[in-house]
Structure to design on (224 residues):
């Protein structure tokens, strides 16, 4: 038992590396604070644009969503950070990570918002247009708010998944939480930092997991 504690739950090691882990934690939050809003806004814009009559635009947007959902975010990040410089565009680690997360995340948010928009009865749109609202204003003020409520559990769940994916930034040596834990483990040859990082991730996401479950149960009750 003592050997287990010393190896995986060493408080002396944790105290020594905690500043490094804290630095990584703030970087993870910074990535999420930028990537999540950008992904949500881009996803809403794509979902709304798929409602326009232009077949070419809808085809391009569907291709955007399908392609980016098919590419793993880690592969996308590696291409952006290591591939784009060959095309004359070099991004720093933070910008490359945000771009990869936003491109991947927006494709999933777009599908969720599209499903929400399609769940709103057409009569709601017609009623909004009959009051003199333009297509854009009727979407923003009537359709999108109702559609968002209909898919709220999926939106929260996808947000949690996107924040989890910030760990891919370690592939380009950006010192987020996972990268910080790996560096700390390498310095002290002790897995305690990785265990600590896992606990931090759990404490971050568990409340949101419970929120998703509650929203799903509430939606199921309302549907019944």
């Amino acid at each position: 038992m003592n050997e287990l504690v010393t190896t995986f739950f060493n408080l002396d090691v944790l105290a020594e590396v905690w500043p490094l882990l804290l630095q990584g934690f703030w970087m993870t939050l910074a990535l999420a604070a930028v990537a999540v809003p950008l992904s949500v806004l881009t996803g809403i814009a794509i979902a709304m644009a798929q409602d326009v009559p232009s077949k070419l635009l809808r085809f391009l947007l569907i291709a955007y969503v399908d392609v980016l959902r098919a590419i793993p975010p880690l592969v996308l990040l590696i291409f952006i950070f290591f591939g784009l410089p060959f095309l004359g565009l070099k991004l720093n680690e933070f910008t490359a990570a945000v771009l990869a997360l936003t491109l991947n995340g927006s494709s999933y948010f777009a599908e969720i918002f599209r499903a929400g928009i399609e769940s709103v009865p057409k009569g709601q749109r017609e009623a909004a247009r009959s009051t003199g609202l333009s297509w854009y204003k009727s979407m923003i003020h009537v359709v999108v708010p109702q559609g968002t409520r209909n898919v709220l559990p999926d939106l929260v769940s996808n947000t949690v998944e996107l924040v989890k994916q910030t760990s891919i930034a370690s592939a380009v040596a950006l010192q987020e939480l996972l990268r910080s834990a790996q560096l700390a483990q390498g310095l002290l040859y002790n897995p305690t930092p990785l265990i600590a990082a896992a606990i931090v991730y759990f404490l971050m996401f568990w409340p949101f997991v419970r929120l998703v479950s509650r929203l799903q149960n509430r939606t199921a009750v309302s549907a019944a």
Notes: The chain has ten helices and no strands.
